[in-house]
Write a structure and sequence with these properties.
The chain has 403 residues and is α/β, with parallel strands linked by helices. 43% of the residues lie in helices and 17% in strands.
Length: 403
């Protein structure tokens, strides 16, 4: 069946029917009727920790939202949201049944978990797709994603559609074709959806690696995050607030999101969410308000990588950085592979920055007693310098709407 679907492709109606059947194969979360149930999904990138600060920030900005984020683990170059959260001691993603999730959504307003009870047919089909080389098919991918969202009761959805050299979609045209079909299928299932095509070549933020991205998420929730990460959080939250008619414009929504990040309410919501998800209250408090790195696993060794010349940062190859981090244990080559939550890199420069020769522009955190020198060569090559001034680029490349 999968080979037939892969070779002959699916019409939008067929994708819709398949998605409905998959969503109905398990539990359906039905939150209180007065709730506005919203969510986002990212197609995956490098350093993509957006969901972790976004969920509490949006919940703090709009208290009548329910944000039931059912997330996944990372595979290949993408770091999974659950992998990052599981670097927090005591966080267990798959510890809640559907009734507990309903209660948490109705009473607290948000959560980030994994679930085997929602769209279980998707899990069965994904394993079969993996061994039949039918993973890379737009219709099957869309059915997989939206079936989980439909089962979670989502009514408003933002698709963060990553485009660039460190994403699944390398060209805008390719991403646009996928995004249009995704938005249409979501609409057929009663989900109002909007796709934001966002740039994904250099890593998001300054950190890549599981516990390191939690550290950066905490900084962001304190209003001290890197500008690209904060911009994405503001934009996605702003669009959801505008789609649900809570604000009159996306810009007004962005201001609401910025306020929750800057006034401490998003950080407090994150701390309380961790406690709801059974993280010890003392650990959650120390993580958010104390010495964050004392709570998180940290690597034994660090190596400073220096610029071989002076110039402006013209490009940062996120894909190369992700592959090195994965080889050091930050990611997986196959499902169920154990990961090292402590390893990763910190970027001290972003595209357009001026760098002088012998300046430290990256730090590698690792646990290798005998580090492969080729990793350092690859990391140094991942930052391209030029003598010309490099102009900043817009993060958003386009918007695809239901209308």
């Amino acid at each position: 069946m999968l080979m037939a679907l892969y070779l002959n492709d699916l019409t939008n109606a067929e994708v819709c029917n398949m998605t409905t059947a998959m969503a109905n194969s398990g539990k359906i979360l039905k939150f209180r009727s007065s709730a506005i149930v919203v969510d986002k999904h990212s197609t995956g990138g490098v350093g993509d920790k957006v969901s972790i600060p976004l969920v509490p920030a949006l919940s703090a900005a709009q208290e009548d939202f329910i944000i039931p984020m059912v997330s996944g683990r990372g595979l290949e170059f993408t770091g999974g949201t659950l992998d990052k959260l599981e670097s927090i001691p005591g966080f267990s993603a798959f510890s809640f049944d559907d009734q507990q999730l309903l209660d948490m959504g109705n009473n607290f307003g948000c959560f980030i978990v994994g679930s085997d009870d929602l769209s279980p047919a998707d899990s069965v089909l994904y394993k079969a797709r993996d061994v039949t080389a039918t993973v890379d098919n737009a219709g099957l991918i869309i059915a997989s994603i939206i079936s989980k969202k439909a089962a979670a009761g989502i009514k408003y959805l933002i698709l963060d559609l990553k485009v660039g050299s460190a994403s699944f979609f390398r060209s805008i045209d390719e991403a646009k074709t996928f995004g249009k079909q995704f938005v249409l299928v979501a609409k057929l299932l009663g989900i109002e959806c909007r796709a934001l095509m966002t740039r994904m070549s250099e890593p998001i933020g300054n950190y890549v690696g599981n516990s390191l991205e939690i550290l950066e998420s905490i900084n962001c929730l304190k209003g001290k995050g890197p500008s690209d990460l904060q911009t994405l959080i503001e934009l996605i939250g702003g669009h959801l607030l505008e789609m649900t008619h809570k604000v009159s414009s996306v810009n007004e929504g962005r201001k609401r999101m910025a306020e929750s990040l800057n006034n401490g309410t998003a950080l407090e919501k994150f701390k309380q969410m961790l406690i709801e998800l059974r993280v010890d209250a003392r650990i959650a408090d120390e993580l958010c308000h104390g010495n964050t790195t004392s709570v998180l696993p940290m690597a034994k060794f660090e190596i400073e990588i220096k610029s071989p010349t002076s110039g402006y940062v013209n490009d940062i190859d996120g894909m190369t950085i992700a592959k090195v981090c994965n080889k050091l244990g930050a990611g997986r080559q196959f499902s169920n592979q154990a990961i090292d939550p402590a390893v990763g890199i910190r970027l001290l420069v972003k595209k357009g920055d001026r760098v002088e020769i012998d300046t430290v522009y990256m730090i590698l955190y690792h646990n290798e007693t005998d580090l492969n020198e080729s990793y350092l060569i690859l990391l140094k090559q991942s930052i391209e310098l030029t003598s010309e001034i490099v102009e900043p680029e817009n993060i958003v490349l386009g918007v695809i709407d239901c209308n």
